[in-house]
Amino acid sequence: MAYTSSLHLSKHLLLPKPHRARPSSSRSPSFVRAARVVDGAPHVNGQSKKAPNGKVQINGAGEKGAVNGHGKKGPGVVNGKTHVNGHDRIHLSVTTGGGGQDGTGLRVAYQGAPGAYSEFAAKTALPGCETVPCRAFADALAAVDRGLVDRAILPVESTMEGTALRNYDLLLRHDLVVAQEINLFVHYCLLAMPGVRATEVRRVISHPMALAHCGRALARLGVDREPVEDTAGAVEMLRSNMMLDTAAIASPRAADLYGLDVLAHGLQDESWNVTRFLLLSKPPSPVAVPVDADAKTSMVVAHRGGSMAVVLKVLSAFSSRNINMSKLEVINNEGGVGEPRPPVMILDTGARGAPTLRAFPHVLYVDCEGAADDPLVREAIKEIEKFAVFVRVLGCYAADTNVYDLQ
Questions:
Q1: What is the three-class DSSP state of 406?
Q2: Angular region, 52: left φ>0, alpha ψ -120 to 50, beta rest
Q3: Which of 93, 234, 306, 307 has an alpha carbon 20 to 30 Å from 247's alpha carbon atom?
Q4: Rounded to two decimals, what is the model's pTM?
Q5: Per-residue pLDDT for 106 more than 50?
Q6: Quick one: which of 381, 178, 379, 367 has its CA closest to 279?
Q7: Of 275, 297, 318, 360, which is the active-site residue?
Q8: 247 and 137 in one domain?
Q9: Residue 277 is a catalytic residue
């Protein structure tokens, strides 16, 4: 397998807050669990259907709450959770005041413009935090390094793209630790300027991944596609340039922030579209894992040859101690003839003197169940250190298996 990094702060790179087209509270939005879901869930993965008002129901079956083209009343809702494809989705409602106290006083950097999915994830994990938009993922991490913010949030993998996001590469280059994880159900909407009808749209703009995730729906609409830096940035471009023949794929909150109309909900091709985010901070981790909580430890194991042998030894180190692994990804960047590939650069935070960047052709990303200070986990790490060239623990944090949904 071969992977290459495709995603690349000084204070002047922080993006300004957008001009909001609609009046709203001066407080940052907060996210809380909804008591119940009314009228079912959005239409997902059914047939396209035009409505008399010019709006289009994409991936819906013409009935409220249709999921994967089945049912009329939507998925079952139990204790505030929707059960889809065997998983729980926790429904959240958006409010403009009040909210929880978690994260109050913290500043969290994210890539993109206000209304981006990364901002959703930050507000879901830390409802009381202040979010700080940045132009690039690297800028968000640099903001933490320089003390401009307390945390940065990165999307690291998704059910539709795997780990093609490659933000792990960025994490390895910084002396930061994973403090928290959050899984967010990504619900794509088609947004347009007020009054614009779906039949008037000739072009759709969004992040390349969002365009790919909505390929079938866009093909049915018969529109041109144009990639831009991020979903919320597409909405900002749409609004600032008053584009009347163009729509954007973004979140429902982006529509509220920028005063746009939602032409279609549930634009994604696959109903189960979940992205995992990691919240990063300076070491040591500022978040203590509760004694009674399920813990997860993330680490990177680097070596220079014998890739399969190292994989088997890593598996043995955990299985011999009955430690479950929730993630094992093998990165092999040792290219063949005429196929040069850049090595994985890892910041060696334990090097004598200043931390040093080191290059490795083979890297394993490992997530295991258990805290890093658990005796069995410590033993497994020590065993791995005996045969691996380099091992770095990326963080120990509370495992969160919930999937949060902003619908």
A1: coil
A2: alpha
A3: 93
A4: 0.74
A5: yes
A6: 178
A7: 275
A8: no
A9: yes
